[in-house]
């Protein structure tokens, strides 16, 4: 039997990145307001590991307990989403992106991420994004 990987370090890293995006205006605080206090779990399909986060007050924080919504995909599909190579709706309808639980909350998260102005990324992140995209 394999033990699950600890969630706290990757959850802290994800929360730090999301908080930077909030403060830089890349993520819309008003678009995410309906998600406040809800638990969102982001999982990898294989291996089945993930992190759960929650927007509380003005910060994303690691969360415990049952997630309100779980979003699951393969690592390469998450990368395709981040690099804008794939549309989330396409991945959803081809069952490469799975959403379980509060689908309204999942759509709030999806719409907030769709609204990110990737051209406004700080230079180091823009370079990393371009390198990952092969540009």
Please characterize this protein's 3D structure:
The chain has 135 residues and is of the alpha+beta class. The chain has one domain: SCP2 sterol-binding domain (Nonspecific Lipid-transfer Protein, Chain A, 2-Layer Sandwich). Helix content is 42%, strand content 20%. It contains 6 helices and 5 strands, in the order ααββββααβαα. A 5-stranded mixed β-sheet has the order 3-2-1-4-5. β1 (39-44) and β2 form a beta hairpin. The N and C termini lie far apart (41 Å). 21% of the residues are buried.
Q: What attributes does this structure have?
A:
globular, alpha+beta, 135 residues, five-stranded mixed beta sheet
Major sheet summary line: 5 strands, mixed
Q: Helix and strand string, N-terminal first?
A: HHEEEEHHEHH
Overall structural class, as computed from helix and strand content, comes to: alpha+beta
Q: How many angstroms separate the termini? A: 41 Å
Ranges with pLDDT <50 over ≥5 residues?
none
> DSSP strand (E) fraction?
15-25%
Number of discrete domains = 1
Radius of gyration: 15 Å
Sheet with the most strands: spatial strand order:
3-2-1-4-5
Helix content: 40-55%
CATH architecture descriptor text:
2-Layer Sandwich
Quick one: how many beta strands?
A: 5
